[in-house]
């Protein structure tokens, strides 16, 4: 496999909008990818094209027929990209809304007042809140396994210690949006199924999707949800995949309508079309970094190249580049999840001793480096409060970022911590 070379990186960056400059701020380095990745130029063009179409799906006219073909093609693209074993893809309001809907229908569908809904303290409130609410409504017990504060992740052994034969629903976050650490979801699902083989498993893939390497067949779960604006598309919709057995559970639908339909009302065909743009980008990238000829191999190659590029960026940020010291060499800096953590996916959350995180973010922004403040609120308190922190600075990268951008960040951090 070929790594992402400087020439290829230039080609990659040329495919994204607003790579080097914000229309409001001007020139800047974008290290806020976990809050929403850059958008493919093709997505912008596709969104504009479909926004002009007045036709709806399901009519007997050429325009409507074309929309139906677009949706069918996008579903095939997503199935290939994520290696889906049957089931179905559909879109909703957002990733959060879809996670709530999947968890709600499972909790209500597995039987009232008997069993456990299992999750962890690592998870985003989208799954934790949904599980807490619908477990209570369905009379189920909601159990949260504690994540490892030191590593910023959770392993299969933690799930294995808590799962019981009456575990009906389990939730997993693929990558934490606060620590940036990934979870070995396949091993977690195996640990759950070993004790509760009929348990429905839902994976929050929202933070992970931009890093590639999605394999639904290998995971063996029943649901996987992403937010397209975090994987090079746009705001305004979420995407869910659900297994055949989850599809068959009772769910909100129109009387007399198709029983397997999980979408509510007419959806935006442009949303589906932009997902084909995203899948096409991964396929293109895989062809640039490998000699693969089939789609699946290209997707795998793209994911591996993205992982290698982001690992190199993280290494430069933590251990330094050129004559610039890395975060690990700055005495005042503490990196959440540790310095050398193999679970890290393109993200470093940090605190600076003696300098409030809100000030660090502001000073970086004033120097044209976009990062984000995470506070001990309902989004991040589950991670920060056990560490005794009221906030942290989240620096999130993606494969289109460069070592030169990391160097700019380190130059400013050297002054902030000096």
UniProtKB/TrEMBL annotation:
- Transmembrane spans: none
For this protein, the record's InterPro entries field holds: Aminotrans_V_dom, PyrdxlP-dep_Trfase, PyrdxlP-dep_Trfase_major, PyrdxlP-dep_Trfase_small
Q: Which residues form the Aminotransferase class V domain?
A: 29-409
The UniProt GO MF terms for this protein read:
lyase activity
What name does this protein carry?
Selenocysteine lyase/Cysteine desulfurase
State the organism of origin.
Shimia aestuarii
- Keywords for this entry? Lyase, Pyridoxal phosphate
Q: Which domain of life is it from?
A: Bacteria
Give the matching Gene3D superfamilies. Aspartate Aminotransferase, domain 1, Type I PLP-dependent aspartate aminotransferase-like (Major domain)
